[in-house]
């Protein structure tokens, strides 16, 4: 099942059900009358929609001890509140990294039930191998719990590269040996539950929006710095992924005509100047006498005064600053979040980079958007993946309850 098929099936009533469910999710516990006020819909609609959500098992009723926020209702009498039914579904969020597959299993509220790191002995693999590793990783994660992989309602997978989430289709990924893969279909051969595939940076943007540095912001940009450079754009509160679903590729923005060769096969991409592999390539081309085998090594050597290491980082910073300046010119975001896990990226938010950004921004008289740095562990992607899985399973179940009732 693809995201596009699910979205096309949803009618106006389903969308109202989703809005009510989202409202309950955000508020933890809320009365029907407060939902009506918050969403500006009639109490009768809320009553009918909550009956649907209760029969779908997605929400549960609890006795609240507080008065309604709107003040309507009798003082002192406990109110019936709605909350999510955490046990309704178990979701697996996955991230494919270079050396491991990370899994996070959550309940329907997004609370962690188990996590697991499945080592990979290869960086690139065939689609079938990837699907098999993903299945094994989820199975191992389930082995740490009292439930089995058959109890999982939905799997969502974050992969690096160009992904069309509407079709679960991977145009290109640094993790795959093949291009143009209907990855959803390959995964369906392993998993019995619905599986969804998204770009990993988009899932970071989702996680930043829900739990991280993007909370409370409507228009912001997340730049992920790992082995490559990823981008997630949130516009007016929604993740933007382009008409074909695979937009927002900062790493492959061209910054140099006929420039350095990128791992995507084209030339002059930003990533070919700032990605970890690009920096390592420069070290080897220059034939450095000093052994530098990671970005952390280059950073250390630069701090110790090695001119080669300094010039490599300086150029990477200049190119990165130009790329961020272009983003500001295009989107005018409230905030830019530089978000990364393991790769050392101090050189990408130095004063030198900020100066490079300022030089690239057209409107020099207005202050730059706030640029903040968020370091995390791999769980930022798996949390985003689980959140995406929860959204998808909600849509599927809402559609099902209505067709059951019809
Ligand atoms: Zn490229």
Concise synopsis of the structure shown:
The protein has 406 residues and is an alpha/beta fold.
Overall tally of structural domains: 3
> N- to C-terminal separation?
22 Å
Question: Order of helices and strands, N to C?
Answer: HHEHHEEEEEHEEEHEHEEEHHHHEHEH
| CATH fold-level name of the largest domain | Nucleotidyltransferase, domain 5
- Major beta-sheet overview: 5 strands, mixed
| Average of pLDDT | 88
Which CATH architecture of the largest domain is right?
2-Layer Sandwich
Radius of gyration: 23 Å
Shape descriptor reads globular
Number of helices: 13
* CATH homology superfamily of the largest domain: ATPase, nucleotide binding domain
* Relative strand content: 15-25%
**Under the CATH scheme, which class of the largest domain?**
Alpha Beta
Please mark out the parts with pLDDT under 50 across 5 or more consecutive residues, or reply none. Answer: none
Helical residue percent band? 40-55%
- Give the strand line-up of the largest sheet: 6-5-4-7-10
**Bound molecule types:** zinc ion
Structural class label: alpha/beta
Total E-strand runs: 15
Task: Explain what you see.
It is built from 13 helices and 15 strands. It has 406 residues and is an alpha/beta fold. The chain folds into three domains: 3-84, Arc Repressor Mutant, subunit A, CATH 1.10.10.10; 90-204 and 380-396, Nucleotidyltransferase, domain 5; 249-333 and 342-375, Nucleotidyltransferase, domain 5 (2-Layer Sandwich). The strands form four sheets. Strands 6-5-4-7-10 form a five-stranded mixed beta sheet. A hairpin with a 5-residue loop joins strand 5 (100-106) and strand 6 (112-119). The longest helix has 27 residues, at 379-405. The mean pLDDT is 88. Bound molecules: zinc ion. Residues 252, 262, 264, 266, 269, 271 line the site of zinc ion (ZN).
